[in-house]
Design a protein that fits this description.
alpha/beta, Rossmann fold, 5-stranded parallel beta sheet, binds flavin mononucleotide
């Protein structure tokens, strides 16, 4: 059976640099297909225990069903004040209430980028320590610092970063 992976950014920015990075990484997959999702298509109310008593919103059910359909995940997280964006945290809090194994014990290529020199290192660290508790099998990680210097016109400018990314994608693909 053909394997397929879900690709998305932890961002709802229309020009998300993390969506650009995740999509670029996906183009390096050789033998498996992929689908790029956008969190804008899964907008949901702000999670609270009280809100949950009204039942799961359709978009939470939809995102949860989407996660079921793939053999692995390629995610690039945007960093807001050292952590997840509110939009990402929100949908993930919701989905974790439907199924604690958000990532279904499937392989995950985990990335982050930002315009700054740390390349989303803080959010990446958070995710590395917490996603395994949500059923993620983190196969490889990649951080791209200084996005606008290193990624121009859809291309990665620095050979070393590009090599590291391709290696991460290959390691991921082997485990899917
Ligand atoms: C509220 C806010 C907080 C931010 N905090 C950080 C930060 O802590 N670290 C960082 O590297 N960039 C930070 N940035 C810059 C983001 O990395 C930048 O907006 C980036 O484009 C976000 O990724 P996206 O384009 O995929 O949404 C912040 C931006 C906003 C709007």
């Amino acid at each position: 059976m053909n394997k397929k992976v879900l690709v998305f950014a932890g961002s709802t920015s229309k020009k998300s640099i993390n969506k650009q990075l995740a999509s670029f990484a996906a183009t390096k997959l050789k033998n498996i297909s992929y689908q790029v999702a956008d969190l804008n298509d899964y907008q949901v109310p702000l999670f609270s225990i009280d809100e949950e008593e009204n039942g799961f919103p359709e978009n939470v059910k939809g995102f949860n069903e989407l996660l079921d359909q793939f053999d692995g995940f390629v995610i690039s997280l945007a960093e807001h004040n050292g952590s997840y964006t509110a939009a990402f945290k929100n949908i993930f809090d919701w989905v974790s209430r439907m199924d604690r194994k958000v990532f279904r014990d499937k392989p995950l290529l985990l990335m982050a980028t930002s315009p700054g020199g740390r390349g989303g290192a803080s959010v990446l660290e958070s995710a590395k320590s917490t996603f395994p508790h949500l059923g993620a099998v983190i196969v490889a990680t990649f951080s791209l610092p200084n996005f606008y210097d290193n990624f121009i016109d859809g291309k990665m400018m620095d050979g070393e970063f590009k090599n590291n990314l391709v290696q991460a994608v290959q390691a991921f693909e082997k485990t899917v």
